[in-house]
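Methods, example record. To illustrate the input and output format used throughout this study, we show the complete record for Bifunctional NAD(P)H-hydrate repair enzyme. The sequence lines were provided to the predictor; the line carrying structure tokens was produced by it.
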Amino acid sequence: MQKIDFRTRHALFNVAATRAMEQAAQAALPAHTLMARAGLAVAQLALALAPHARRIWIACGPGNNGGDGLEAAMHLQRWGKQPVLTWLGSADTAPADAAASYQRALQAGVTFSQTPPDAFDLCIDALLGIGSQVREPDGRMADWIRLINASKQAVLAVDLPTGLHADTGAVTQLSVKATHTLSLLTLKPGLFTAHGRDAAGSVWLADLGVDQLTALAQQPLAPTAWLAGAPPAAERPHASHKGSYGDIAVVGGAPGMTGAALLAASAALHAGAGRVFVGLLDGGTLSVDTSQPELMFRPVEALELSAMTVVCGCGGGDAICAQLPRILSAAAAVVIDADAINVIANDTKLQTLLTERSQRGAATVLTPHPLEAARLLGTSAAQVQADRLAACGQLAERYHCTVVLKGSGTLMAAPGQTSVINPTGNARLATAGTGDVLAGLIGARLAGGLDAFEAACQAVYQHGLAADRWPPGRALTAGALSRLLLH
Ligand SMILES: NC(=O)C1=CN([C@@H]2O[C@H](COP(=O)(O)OP(=O)(O)OC[C@H]3O[C@@H](n4cnc5c(N)ncnc54)[C@H](O)[C@@H]3O)[C@@H](O)[C@H]2O)[C@@H](O)CC1
Ligand SMILES: [K+]
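The corresponding predicted structure is encoded as:
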């Protein structure tokens, strides 16, 4: 069993892949082995999380997720705890594994109850796992979810918090908010994106002794996605100079939005770019930023884009429209953010220029938030959020480039790549300008020589990590964030 600490990368498997792995493992192991291992892992983690807990409410659903709860109850009873089990199944209707665990719990003397205990020290949510269907829980299950969420005690979810969709991170309106989740056999993508992180709390993995990649099967299963790990430390050879770390041109900052371009430029500078030029679309009112004298202001037309990484769109307004044909045609590498995305969403000629970039091997990164992604796909933000992995993958295929879909559990997709979910970051990033900082940081990584997908993955991770390390009690501002980025 391991706690997922976000430093090492992890393979994620959707329900179909997990089921395939489960079947292969079951065929190779004696009956009931997997559930026995799952129940033991749940009981062990419960004990580790709440060593002094006495009364433990175990809420069990009708399927094998409930079976894991029944199996865990048997161990907790034997270890001198007082598990109280409420079960929505019955011996006649339960699947074989759950029925076997029911008999074992009965024999161990576990207390079965029609109603949850009045008081408890820990709750185990074993209502629904990967067999959960996308329908609103009702009746007693709904009542129990409300009670679980109202309790002040720790909640350990078995496999998934009930109501969370394993593949997408979407939730039913009524769903369990856990403090800990023990994912079984595999880690699922839905634990880490959309509502997953809020629903799951801290995530643990019990692989049940099944090697994930070989899975006892002939064919190793390809991961559905990866959870990103920490990027390798960047090393700067002594024999390097500013040209080794690339030139960046930030193009944006229409009147009233100059700050967005300056934030992107500041981020690129502090993330280690060799030289940072700023082509403002403000009509030439600003020619120096005295707090950042390293930045070089130039008319956009004077920038030699073919030798530069262009970060465009930050505060670009409508003025970015006129610049995009040249940027998309000429820039060596480009990060397309904010207003540039909105302009491209409405212009098929620009879309053609965008997709043509991949044919000449020019690096391109699109950084939409869900509404911008929806505009590019011609759908709604709600539909994007309902399946973020699918939406991000579609955008990458359609526009032949790397796509960063922002939001909780930011995603990266690119043609021919397994998508990556970023584990770092928190709601402190929900403040104006942090997206501009991210665009500048991705630009710095591109200018430093990484390919588009790797640049996006590393930048998103580091941007989130800076927010995770923010001093408690101090508000996060985009300007301060841009100065704290790692080289
Ligand atoms: N079979 C095995 O070998 C293993 C199964 N495992 C456990 O089994 C789980 C999967 O078991 P199942 O496939 O039985 O699925 P679940 O137990 O997750 O759920 C299926 C049951 O819940 C009902 N249900 C689904 N959605 C509902 C909703 N919205 N409202 C009310 N009822 C709903 C279904 O009708 C069915 O009875 C895993 O998540 C894991 O916890 C683990 O023990 C590992 C081994
Ligand atoms: K559960």
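Annotations derived from this record:
The mean pLDDT is 94.
The CA atoms of residues 133 and 165 lie 8 Å apart.
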